[in-house]
Write a structure and sequence with these properties.
Distance between the termini: 43 Å
Length: about 140
């Protein structure tokens, strides 16, 4: 009897730890928002200096965006819908970083075709980012 009483509180503790460890949807949303906001803040601070932006600055911005993509990939999500948005955001950021580097390369080689292609990639990534942002906001606002 004494061993049963000892095991029962331990079992309750283990069950509460297991169920308590699952992050809420709201918390998971906040983790995605935090990375998205940080990527936006860092790239804006680099590219909105009020002076002519050099290629080195744009490459640094591409690196920061790519870091955001990697950070987004590493998030642990248990909500399947948030996993989808996490993957999309990671891909969007990777597309932005790739396109930024392509634009730099096009500047260096004065390759107009490559520049237009990179600009189109940025446009598409921006459109997808807006769409994903609207969807995640709707999903995260639902109880």
């Amino acid at each position: 009897m004494a061993s049963f009483n000892y095991k029962f509180p331990l079992l309750i503790l283990l069950v509460s730890l297991l169920t308590g460890c699952a992050e809420s949807k709201s918390f998971q949303c906040q983790k995605i928002y935090l990375i998205a906001n940080e990527v936006t803040k860092e790239t804006r601070s680099l590219t909105n200096t009020g002076t002519k932006i050099d290629q080195k600055t744009w490459l640094l911005a591409a690196d920061k965006i790519e870091q955001g993509s990697e950070s987004m990939k590493k998030l642990q999500m248990n909500d399947p819908e948030l996993q989808k948005y996490q993957t999309l955001y990671s891909q969007i950021y990777q597309d932005y970083a790739d396109a930024t580097r392509e634009i730099i390369q096009a500047w260096e080689t004065t390759n107009r075709i490559k520049a237009k292609s990179a600009q189109e990639k940025v446009r598409k990534a921006g459109q997808l980012e807006r769409e994903v942002g609207e969807k995640i906001n709707r999903h995260c606002s639902q109880k």
